[in-house]
Design brief:
348 residues, alpha/beta, 48% helix
């Protein structure tokens, strides 16, 4: 429940909105206080929950590096394992007061001596993995085929969690700038991975799995497009409803930082993604993400997902955007305020 201080701030903000004919319509402002209360209560209920990523892919393809790039800090340890044993490793972390778990599966997609002992690994991951909000299947774009050990990994995942686990998954191709013919290889590799997954799920599930090509040493892929925003978008829209709001809250300050930068503030903010090990693909990265420049389509996809998990926001139109969301978030303050500001950014 909202405390009296929060209620008072909402009442004050609502009155200001009702008095403003330029920023928001009177019909919307009259119900905005109620919408805001519902939103804050939903965020409060989600604050103590966490989101969980399960990483699958061969050792050294860049799983940890890509997660760290997305979350803006080193969450998963890079290069800790060699492809010599099958294990399950969970990294627990807290981002802006929101808990998250990154579960890595070294050995799952590797050709190792224990290969063929599927039942043992299925039992291991079923025992240790209790929640999955998004499955990351990570592989290199410059590989020409789906390897036998990757096929084994896809089979084990499907048997351990049932084929429906792929309904909340993303295919991620690392080393995008190493591809000879980027667009052709992206399309072909996506088809081959989906075809392999379809053997266990059917085409309806497999063909809906999005793919994103990334390069942890560059802001862009060979076609000149920025990959971090696309990764963020696809990760968010494919997450379970349970994990989507905690993920949004954890990354809210990054979205709000981007808004400030796009308004000409703090232009020198740089995310450094440096790693020591040479075991992971492209183990050292340094690129400027002083703003997350979402395209109109990306913002619409994220907005649609937000409405799915917070239906009350369906009535919020384009008038409730960054110009309103930012001040509201700042007035509310804290993790909840940051989340409010970032959510309304996607409605601008």
């Amino acid at each position: 429940m909202l405390n009296e201080s929060a209620k008072k701030r909402i009442e004050e903000l609502t009155k200001k909105l009702e008095a403003s004919k330029e920023s928001i319509s009177s019909s919307l402002s009259s119900s905005f206080g109620e919408i805001l209360v519902l939103l804050i209560e939903k965020l409060q209920l989600s604050q103590d929950k966490k989101f969980v990523f399960l990483l699958a892919g061969r050792t050294g393809v860049g799983k940890s590096s890509t997660v760290n790039s997305l979350l803006g800090q080193q969450i998963a340890t890079v290069g800790k394992y060699d492809a010599t044993t099958m294990d399950v490793q969970e990294y627990e972390h807290e981002i802006n007061g929101v808990k998250c778990s990154i579960i890595d599966t070294p050995g799952l997609c590797d050709d190792i001596p224990e290969k063929g002992n599927n039942e043992k690994y299925i039992e291991l991951i079923q025992r240790q993995v209790k929640q999955i909000d998004l499955l990351w299947f990570v592989t290199r774009l410059d590989e020409s085929r789906v390897t036998n050990d990757e096929k084994q990994g896809i089979q084990i995942i499907s048997e351990a969690f049932t084929p429906t686990v792929w309904e909340h998954s993303v295919i991620i191709f690392t080393r995008a700038n190493k591809a000879d013919d980027y667009l052709e290889e992206l399309a072909e590799r996506t088809k081959r991975i989906r075809d392999e997954i379809a053997k266990h799920t059917g085409n309806e599930i497999a063909n809906k799995i999005p793919s994103v090509a990334v390069d942890n040493k560059s802001q862009t892929t060979p076609d000149g497009k920025r990959w971090l925003e696309e990764l963020y978008t696809q990760v968010f829209i494919k997450m379970t409803e349970r994990g989507a709001i905690p993920f949004l809250m954890a990354t809210a300050s990054r979205i709000n930082k981007s808004q400030s930068n796009q308004n000409g503030k703090d232009p020198n903010w740089i995310f450094y993604n440096k790693f020591e090990s040479q075991n992971e693909a492209d183990s050292e990265s340094e690129f400027n993400v002083n703003d997350l420049i979402f395209t109109g389509l990306q913002k619409e996809l994220i907005k649609k997902k937000i409405i799915e998990v917070i239906p009350a926001l369906a009535v919020a139109g384009a008038g409730v955007g960054a110009t309103i969301g930012g001040p509201i978030g700042a007035a509310i303050g804290g993790v909840i305020g940051a989340a409010v500001g970032s959510i309304f950014y996607f409605f601008s």
